[in-house]
Amino acid sequence: MLLVAYDGARFHGFAAQPGQDTVGGALADTLSSMTGHQVSLTCAGRTDAGVHALGQVVHADLDGTVLEKWAGCKPEPGTVLERLATSLSHQLGPTITVIEARVALEGFHARHSATSRRYR
Question: Catalytic positions, please?
Fold first, then answer.
C-alpha cells in the first residue's frame, strides 16, 4: 500500500491513459522499472486533470520476493518499504511523493476498503 501526494497541474488525472501523462501511469511505470515486473495500481479514487492529492491511498500487488530482489537482500521488516518509498519519491519528485509504503492487510483493496474520502 502506498500513500502518495502529488501536484496534478501537469497530469491528465490519475488513471493511466494511452498517450497521456498521468499520475498512475508515472507511478506504475517507475515501480515496474525499479522491480523489473509489470505493476498495475489501484487507487482509492481517481482524480481528474489538474487535481492535486495529499494522502491518496494506492495499492499494488507485489510479491515479497520481488521487493527483496530489488533491495538486493532480505532486509529487516519495513526497511525495504522505506527504501522503496524514498526511491520512488526521488525518481518522481517533486511532483509526486510517496509518503509511506507498507504491507496491507490480507484482502485490502484501495478503492473498496476505503472508509472515507475528502475533496476540497
Answer: 48
